[in-house]
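quick one, 241 residues, struct below
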Amino acid sequence: MRQHAVPLDLTRVPLGERPLRRLPQLFAGLALYGLSIGAMVRAGLGISPWSVLNQGVERHTALSFGTVSALVGALVLLLWIPLKQRPAFGTAANVVVVAYASDAGLWLVPQDLGLAARAGLLLAGILVNGLAVAVYVGARLGPGPRDGLMTGLAARTGRSLRLVRTLIEVLVLAAGWLLGGSVGAGTVLYALAMGPVTQYFLPRFAYGRTPKDPPPPTFRRPRGPAGIRSRRLRTCEVSEL
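---
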């Protein structure tokens, strides 16, 4: 009989539940995310779709890149409302930790690298970026603004995170390009690869139940006398799991 995968539960879990297990995972994921962003910027072969969008909006306003980034993040948070998503501790930590970790990545990675080194840096950055998203989202302390949009849409539509993430990245990339943002080969690769990479790693880092760890079956004691009714009840309960 074909077994159906149990969907991941990525709803927020209260901060007080196993904080020594989940807080290090959250901060490690956010730090890796920021470092990988800095590495991809140093590669110089294409920025992420959201950065393309921010750059495109910047070209049509008098606002700085950082201000545009903050405003776009606020608008994304407004999209959480119909998806019934709420900001949490992880949402605030996302803004602070990623900002400092990105600067650290730019400081650690040298400039003026050769093309081969830059290509390797780009590929490693995309891989680590997808891993980082899975790590900090999997801590279930609240996703960042853009990741909350991903998980919220996936929950409401029933589609896979891979598909939802890829569609979001492609749409954002197209909007940024139409507004005049810079697009490189790395940007397209990032948009296409982030969904599958995140989907692959997320079940391995999601706190709580995963498709590989279904809950054990439970049996209710029948109210009637033992016999045929009891066996029928047990058979029905097991087949419904």
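The CA atoms of residues 58 and 65 lie 6 Å apart.
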